TrEMBL record, chain A:
InterPro entries: aa-tRNA-synt_IIb, aa-tRNA-synth_II, aa-tRNA-synth_II/BPL/LPL, Ser-tRNA-ligase_type_1, Ser-tRNA-synth_1_N, SerRS_1_N_sf, SerRS_core, tRNA-bd_arm. Its EC number is 6.1.1.11. Keywords: Aminoacyl-tRNA synthetase, ATP-binding, Coiled coil, Ligase, Nucleotide-binding, Protein biosynthesis. Residues 164-191 form a coiled coil. GO terms for cellular component: cytoplasm. ATP binds at residues 349-351, 365-368, 436-439. This is serine--tRNA ligase. It comes from Linum tenue.
UniProtKB/TrEMBL annotation, chain B:
It comes from Linum tenue. CDD domains: SerRS_core. This is serine--tRNA ligase. L-serine binds at residues 325, 356, 379, 476. Its EC number is 6.1.1.11. PROSITE patterns: AA_TRNA_LIGASE_II (PS50862). The lineage of its organism: Eukaryota, Viridiplantae, Streptophyta, Embryophyta, Tracheophyta.
Length: 531, 523
């Protein structure tokens, strides 16, 4: 019954919004052969001299907003695999960074980032100088070549041949320097964090500001159990078997826990589809370059990412990654924006370095189910959609009757990609504390500059822009803004529901909205054990 | 509405059956430190001499049904990592193999297995001889030790010491001789284990003998639908209905990955929900399982997690891999435990994502959703008494057939031929459904009776009333492999206008949706 009204109409409406221009699917393949080549090169580093990146100089001399011409696979395929070489290029706006060096430096300080702005600017200036020299030499070489097209005395011709040869050698050497410099610059600049929303509180975790508080901790007239104890009595989990079969922090869901997970996912999807989000089920194995482009570190000692042996692939820690990749290296029509996705996936995390943290039961686990919202929109709309996302989250959690607070996360707690981040922390009476149940981030153009996701403003905007007369009515492309937000991280939601809705007899009341998705079940009852 | 009646009562009933004796959870940890040690050893093979396996001789002299004392972690932890050493021991009944050598040889022939029975029997006889010698020497050593406990003349005592020091003609003393034989015993039993693990399960007498073409049709339901228009395959339908994105997935993940979009997401959820509700009605306990498991569990279920042509994705820098089917983590739930007979049968229905490399599948049908690296599946798994496994095998195939009939599919059920069973199955029933877009029948499910093949590797026993423990039988059967089901539903239920009718049973799980309609593209 309940489901019927959610779908039908809403879905069709969503579909229209989600349509993508045909050009997107063609441009997608530009990058595909690259990562394979580079992985092979990494294993067997070659020390041959680097050939030039012909597209690079052009890219860097273009306006920042359109400097993302992706290198063709041929160029990259023959590049050296020297250590520290970036495997892909973010379209970082170096000119903007130079012109706003004070603001960028201040931002790096605010966020306690380890990025070195000095080094980035130094490399950028060096690179500009070399680039200028390369362009001058190319001009000369072309002039010489033009001269030689005409009729010449043999002695004259010989002089030009000599000159051309010298120019070619000088040019090759400078071009090589240019490649090295731009690689170094890319490497350094990738660690510069996103800028910070002016309203973000400055400081560490404790500085985060409470935006909103809903409800209050439930008063219990009996001694509360945590979700592990409740789960044991209700026969909902098996951590012991999972520890043997898989390792610690794995678990089986059993009996009504399976139904509860299905209900949470179904209900959440139906809710967000009503709000115009297109549902997706995503790949859970992705190329590691996509993980990097979304701002995560797939390698290193403390990585949260599981890698697949003998390949460049890894497991996703969140559906944000494969959804971010859907429109990679493409130019969207402005009319399709905003694109709003709600992606269901399993998520996998190593939880390396989490030894000291709260790890009881379902709170911190290696595998879990999650519905993640993801929005691609025009830059001027991302603040609005950020508000929309946090409102959707709050509405979902309120519908389930949770007591929670929403935090405007402090500058040092944002991670590199987020411009602003809202976390929701819900009361978990069994654990006796608030625990994070969701996170909504506005990443502005941090991810889109790495993933190469641009849009072309409508023609009207172009015709009113006097700067771009030469290119007909086509406006220059811009990077979209991306936002992501948890709609439902199943295990943490289970903790909240079990611990908050427990009754004195050990039973657990199922929140009203989930009941239609559990065949009308209203309560989880304790089992009688046999055997 | 529909769901309400399925749960409530049925679930509670299932729970009683699923209860496990408390001892199980304790014995579970016996194995956990082992695989880690061995992985480390594999990377850095040590060539120190093998210390003895003290438990092994005892295990082998015991009755086959109870010979599974798992080696303690200490024993394995210090063992050498020489190539070919098994990382765990299957409780293979060597005595039974020797006593039934003709039947076993015939079975190996029937299944075109590469196992070498001759070598297994030779190693077994050798091992028995060495074991006998070890026992004799231990007896002697104990006798001497006992003698020396009493009061003795110094000269007498000296004689015993001489005896221990200068044993036999070999010149070795008793202690040294024993150590040497014990070392041989370990090596032999490792070799024996390695060889014997490749012996396939025995074969049900009704299984047709031969290759794929010999498989017998057990049942045929319906007939191919007659179309009055030219049919589209699921890829074409999915494109028009905006259900999949293979192009984006190829770039983000690789070929044979895909995104499900729009109603395809709802269809997957509906298939999983409906299937779970159906099998729960039949008394199956629902599970959602880990999808990363230790590779030893994969091996114990009869799969090969390593090697060039492995179907298994491994996790870098660990001994873990991704599951190709929920059969693996469900098989592991009761690993190394002894169940009370009263809890049997245990019936599970596990939902998981499955991951397969599809190595070597280059030449096979690979269009669209048919052969993919990741998919959702509900898998049934039964643990039961040996005398009941044939009955539960019939029950499982009947459940599958009922599910597919409810969805209106045209299919046939095959009794798979001996060469097509794989090592673990004693008998296997496959269901192949008609896929009009692909223009052929395609496998949509498989139901296998593995008898005690997996339980002897996983160490899952039960204790009949007042008797010695026995190995349970395990069975597994696909309840719903989502992508293949989607192919069937899309291709069989397509209408001339490109829309697709949703089967009646799934509609309540899709909010009453009755048809998938073609989209109008914008942009």
């Amino acid at each position: 019954m309940g489901l019927h009204s959610y779908f039908g109409g809403a879905t069709i409406q969503t579909l229209k919004m989600a349509a993508v221009p045909a050009s997107a699917s063609y441009s997608r393949f530009v990058f595909s052969p690259i990562s394979r080549n580079l992985v092979a090169l990494d294993s067997f580093p070659r020390h041959s001299p680097s050939p030039p990146f012909p597209l690079l100089a052009r890219a860097l001399s273009m306006a920042a907003a359109v400097q993302t011409t992706p290198p063709s696979s041929e160029d990259i395929g023959t590049a050296t695999g020297s250590v520290g070489k970036p495997q892909w290029k973010a379209a970082i706006d170096f000119k903007w960074i130079r012109d706003n060096r004070e603001a960028v430096a201040e931002n790096i300080r605010k966020r306690k980032s380890k990025a070195s702005l000095e080094l980035v600017l130094e490399l950028y200036e060096k690179m500009l100088a070399v680039q200028k020299e390369v362009e001058r030499l190319r001009g000369e070489r072309n002039a010489v070549a033009n001269m030689m097209k005409g009729k010449l005395e043999p002695s004259e011709r010989q002089k030009f041949i000599e000159k051309g040869k010298n120019l070619k050698e000088a040019l090759a050497s400078f071009e090589e320097d240019l490649v090295k410099l731009s690689d170094e610059l890319q490497q350094e600049a990738q660690s510069i964090p996103n800028m910070t929303h002016p309203d973000v509180p400055i400081g560490g975790e404790d500085s985060s500001a409470v935006r909103k508080k809903v409800g209050s901790p439930r008063e219990f007239s009996f001694s509360v159990k945590d979700h592990l104890q409740l789960g044991k009595e209700l026969d909902l989990f098996d951590f012991d078997a999972a520890a043997e079969v898989s390792g610690s922090k794995f678990y089986y869901l059993k009996n009504e826990a399976v139904l509860l997970e299905m209900a949470l996912v179904n209900w959440t999807l139906s809710q967000v589809m009503q709000k115009g989000f297109t549902p997706l089920i995503t790949p859970e194995i992705v190329r590691s370059s996509i993980v990097e482009k979304c701002g995560f570190q797939p390698r290193g000692d403390n990585t949260q990412v599981y890698s697949i042996e003998g390949s460049d692939q890894c497991l996703i820690g969140t559906a944000e990654i494969p959804v971010g990749g859907v429109h990679m290296d493409s130019i969207l029509a402005e009319t399709v924006l905003p694109l709003k996705y709600a992606a269901f996936s399993h998520c996998f995390r190593t939880e390396a370095g989490a030894a000291g943290l709260a790890t009881r039961g379902l709170y911190r686990v290696h595998q879990f189910s999650k519905v993640e919202m993801f929005v691609l929109c025009r830059p001027d709309e991302s603040d609005t959609y950020h508000e929309e996302l946090i409102t959707i989250e709050e509405d979902l959690f309120s519908s389930l009757g949770l007591h929670y607070k929403t935090l405007d996360m402090a500058s040092e707690d944002l991670g590199a990609p987020a411009y602003r981040k809202f976390d929701v922390e819900a009361w978990m009476p069994g654990l006796g504390r608030y625990g994070e149940i969701s996170s909504a981030s506005n990443c502005t153009d941090y991810q889109s500059r790495r993933l190469g996701i641009r849009y072309r403003p409508a023609e009207l905007a172009a015709s009113t822009n006097p700067k771009k007369g030469g290119k007909g009515n086509l406006a220059p492309t811009k990077f979209v803004h991306t936002l992501n937000a948890t709609a439902c991280a199943v295990p943490r939601m289970m903790i909240c529901l079990l611990e908050n809705n427990q009754q004195e007899d050990g039973s657990v009341i199922i929140p009203e909205p989930l009941r239609p998705f559990m065949g009308g079940m209203e309560v989880l009852l304790a089992k009688h054990h046999t055997g």
